[in-house]
Fold:
Amino acid sequence: MILRRIKNGIIVFMLFVGVAMAKAQTSIPKEEIPEYINKKVKDAILMLYSKKSDERAFGALYLGEGGSLSEPAIPFLIDLLNDAAEIYRNQLTSFGQNVFHQYVSSNSFSPSEVASNALVKIGVASIEPLIASLEKLRVDTRWYAAKALIKFGQQAGAPLINALQHRHFQARWMAVYALGRIKDERAFEPLIAALKDENAFVKREVIETLERFKDNRAVEPIINELENMLEDNSLLADNRLAEGSGTTTTTMAELNLEVRKEAMFALGEFKDKRAVEPLSNALNNPIPEIRFAAACALAEFDDTRAVEHLIEALKRKDVLGSREVAAKHLGRLKDIRAVEPLIYALNDRDRDVKIEAIISLQNIGDLRSVEPLVNALNDKDKYVIEKVQGALEKIGKAAIEPLIEALKNKNSTIRNNAASTLNKITKNNFGNKYDIWHKWWEENKDIFLDKTE
Structure:
């Protein structure tokens, strides 16, 4: 217990913990500190007004150790959740590192993290004030309130369910987020109803949360909501900035598109056959991003109707993160129509796209990919080369002759990597000497191929 480790209470900490400085003190006027409360609790609340971030964090830590005795400090700790000032481990003395032992495993922490944990330690009296705070806290710090509520588990379930009706979308959003981590079964039906929430942030979080529940009763409602959304594309032309996103660049159109995509991705994760028809219909949508999401979801069902749309996405370069996903799903489907586009992707500038293309060509195993993979042994990225070697090793005997021919290449990198790959496939070690490998292959080709059939 921290209270037992500190002989002279708060004063010892103020003298020896460290020198971390920041300006983000609590915003509640000191006059609002209750007059008739435990003196140590009052002194700890006063620490929340310190100009030093580590002292504010210690005040929160001290209040958490006080349990229910610290209930008068709840509003002040909730206000401290907005205090994201970083406290670096190397700024603390050894005493300070001992005091904050549960936080110093990472390079830095903040008073808001300590306040979040303190509110949980104080007990269930913190739940309702935490929920009320969800609409007031900053975008980047309200997650600490949600994380505190999650730690209460089922105790916070009923109040969080009630918060799904809150007038502020931020509170509803965070309530859904917390319920998804608590997985309170009482929340399932209210979350189904929340699919109709008019706010896109909330709706997207509801879909993700229902996916977390892994209950197929959610499939039909998600399908219905998806079909309703796809019938109305007017929201996808709304270029107003999305308030509450934490970014100044996200538009309502982008956000509403993300909701539709999330619904399709969720249906793919459920793998319920009822989703196949609506997802297939979405392949005809005029919006490329929606066709891509539908194709990814259908790939989870091993439905080859997704192939041409995944190839389309692989060729596009204007949708961040979609091409490597497309390459990955093409490998899962193992359709030979994907071989040429995946070969082309071996020269992509995006490392992740290249890696997924290599893995997918390995999975498909089409011999057309052998020579392009051998040429890819010249890549400057060592990890990419490792993946290429792994793919050629998996392809096996069909790669031997092209690899031997690669030993004549003027590029020493290709020669050395080809030799290394030949060693892994054949268990022979002839270095990168073409003549020796060629002679061995001519003498042992028939025997080797028979042995590896």
Observations:
- Residues 1-122 form one domain.
